Description:
Blueprint: H1 7-20, E1 24-29, E2 38-44, E3 47-56, E4 62-69, H2 75-88, E5 93-98
Parallel strand pairs: 2-5
Antiparallel strand pairs: 1-5, 2-3, 3-4
Amino acid sequence: MDDRIPAHLEVGGLIRAVEGQGGFGMVISKGERTAGTLLVVCCNRATPARAYERMPQLDGQRKWTLTKVQDPDSPADFNEYCQRRGAQDADLWVIELDIENAERFIGIEPADS
C-alpha cells in the first residue's frame, strides 16, 4: 500500500504554506490528481531557479533531488527542461515556489547557487 499524500493535496499544501509566509506559489502544469509526481521549481529574485524531483532510492524511499539549476546566461534552457519533463511524464505536476529559501518547504537545505 502506498502511504503517499495525494498529489493535489500536497501541491495545495505547499502553495498555501509558501503564500502564508509571504511568497507566491503557482501550478505550472497539473499532473495526475492522486498519484502524480512533483517537480518543484524553487526561485526568488536573489538566486537562479532550481528544479527538484523526488527520485526513487534503492531502499524504496523517494528523496528530493536537485535535477536542474537555471543558467543565468541561458534561462530558456531551464524552462525547456521543465516542459520536456512534463512531456515525458503525463502524471507530473510542475509547481513554482517563489520565496527566499523555498527548499525549506520540501524539507531540504537549499542548494548552493
